[in-house]
Design brief:
iron ion binding; Cyt_P450; two-stranded antiparallel sheet; iron; heme binding
Length: about 130
């Protein structure tokens, strides 16, 4: 999830200023797995999305479709499609976990590196 700052913005008392034109990236995958907001984030726990639990945390800690006026235009369709598919599967299949099934964990991370300059850089002390 990325946005471009349309004005300079100071981040509270941190001393950090986001300059106009800078790209701000929100690491949604990491945010959704932050134990500060979601205890035991890797555990399947649908109760964390009850109205009572959602009221305990900032609404911008869960952004599956982005946020604001530029969120995903396919959000409503995706949610409806998911419900229809789930209803079909539950109505037509019996789902069991095999004793041989291994639980797979997905690891994603972004690695930021300094861009390589096409120019040779040297430091000269005067």
């Amino acid at each position: 999830l990325e946005r471009i700052a349309d004005a300079d913005y100071k981040l509270g008392e941190t001393g950090i200023t986001i300059k106009k034109g800078m790209t701000v990236s929100v690491p949604v995958y990491c945010l959704h797995r932050d134990s500060k907001y979601y205890p035991n984030p890797e555990r399947f726990d649908p109760d964390r999305f009850t109205a009572e639990e959602r009221a305990k945390r900032d609404p911008y800690t869960y952004l599956p479709f982005g946020a604001g006026p530029r969120n995903c235009i396919g959000m409503r369709f995706a949610l409806m499609e998911t419900k229809v598919c789930l209803a079909y599967v539950l109505a037509n299949f019996i789902i069991k976990k095999s004793s041989h099934t291994k639980v797979l964990y997905m690891s994603t991370c972004l690695k930021f590196e300094r861009a390589r300059s096409p120019f040779q850089q040297t430091t000269r002390f005067i």
